[in-house]
Amino acid sequence: MSTDETTQRLRVFLVDDHAMFRAGVRAELGLHVDVIGEASAVAEAVQKISALEPDVVLLDVHMPDGGGRAVLDAMRRTHPNVRFLALSVSDAAEDVIGLIRAGARGYVTKTISPDELADAIRRVADGDAVFSPRLAGFVLDAFAARPDTPVADPELDQLTNREREVLRLLARGYAYKEIAKELFISIKTVETHVSNVLRKLQMSNRYELSRWAADRRLV
């Protein structure tokens, strides 16, 4: 049986706060799986997933109201048969490890191709753990070294999810205009987030932020 024939029966739910991204995923996956619903916020996602009970939920990590971790925390005890696959722009170690600790079966980045994503969905539905290539090392290192220790960083915990995304892109050398385009926000909003990060971390410029982010493997 081919991959397409196998995944055709899978019922998938999509959680992401960007409408254009959700539309793109629906279009790309249409030949492979049945996307039975979508949500842009945590409360909406929890309600619809509970009602629909999909096979696999594609879950964004960072959303304004708590993101993927909040959805997992609400769902994992009441709906243990629903499998969760994180699908995010972030490839930071703390995001990957945090979602896996919360109960996700895999974590892939939004650079994944449609065919690879369809295969990842099938594998997660079958009970496998699936990661984009370089992300698996983060999980292995974290669980081998400190299997019972939660990932915590008091300084990082001061930042909102959106501030972390802006910081990560800034540290990679993105200009404000490029960050705005990547995150679907205005340049003014980017500037506000950067100011907030500088204030919270008590730093004076983006170069200090870049070094700080690199030290924490956020880049």
UniProtKB/TrEMBL annotation:
MF terms from GO for this chain are: DNA binding
Task: Look up keyword Zinc-finger and say if it applies.
Answer: no
**Keywords for this entry?**
DNA-binding, Phosphoprotein
Entry keyword Phosphoprotein: yes
Might you name a Gene Ontology BP term for this protein? phosphorelay signal transduction system
InterPro entries on file: CheY-like_superfamily (IPR011006), NreC/VraR/RcsB-like_REC (IPR058245), Sig_transdc_resp-reg_C-effctor (IPR016032), Sig_transdc_resp-reg_receiver (IPR001789), Tscrpt_reg_LuxR_C (IPR000792), WalR-like (IPR039420)
Residue span, Response regulatory domain: 11-125
Q: Which residues carry this modification: 4-aspartylphosphate?
A: 60
User: Where is each HTH luxR-type domain found?
Assistant: 152-217
| One Pfam family cited in the UniProt record for this chain | GerE
Query: Would you say which domain of life the source belongs to?
Result: Bacteria
Task: Please give the PANTHER family that the UniProt record associates with this protein.
Answer: TWO-COMPONENT RESPONSE REGULATOR (PTHR43214:SF43)
Spell out the protein name for this chain.
Answer: DNA-binding response regulator
Q: What organism does this protein naturally occur in?
A: Dactylosporangium matsuzakiense
